[in-house]
Amino acid sequence: MNGQPLDCVILLPSIHHVLKAEQLCKQHGLPHDLVPVPRRISGDCGMALALPAASLERMRQLLAEAGQPAPRIFRRRPDGDFSPLWSG
User: Fold this and answer.
1) Are residues 81 and 40 in contact, defined by beta-carbon separation less than 8 angstroms?
2) Which of 4, 21, 57, 58 can bridge 52 by disulfide, Cβ–Cβ 3.0-4.6 Å?
3) How far apart are CA 26 and CA 33, in angstroms?
4) What's the distance, CA 31 to chain centroid?
């Protein structure tokens, strides 16, 4: 994990898109983890991708190059809640 906290969460429209994003992370050596969508972000069940903030721009670029939909990105605050960073 490079010692970087996985403090950002990327939401995509379907599990198919999340798995494609995970595949891109693996191919390009980006630290990541598949996580349940935090309830503080959405009450919907589903999976999301957790990344360190330092990897966000590269991940957005990879998703765009792969023709994937624009993600919704949130960052965990010190109080444990999430702030939206970007909504495509």
Assistant:
1) yes
2) 4
3) 10
4) 11
The predicted structure's pLDDT at residue 21: 96
| Whole-angstrom distance, CA of residue 24 vs CA of residue 68 | 11
Average pLDDT, the chain: 91
* 58 neighbors 30 (Cβ within 8 angstroms): yes
Q: How confident is the model at residue 86 (pLDDT cuts 50, 70, 90)?
A: confident
b (16+ CB within 10 A) / e for 29-66: ebbbeeeebbeebeeeeeebbbbbeebbeebbebbeee
| Residues facing residue 47 across a β-bridge | 36
Strand-pair partners of 83: 75
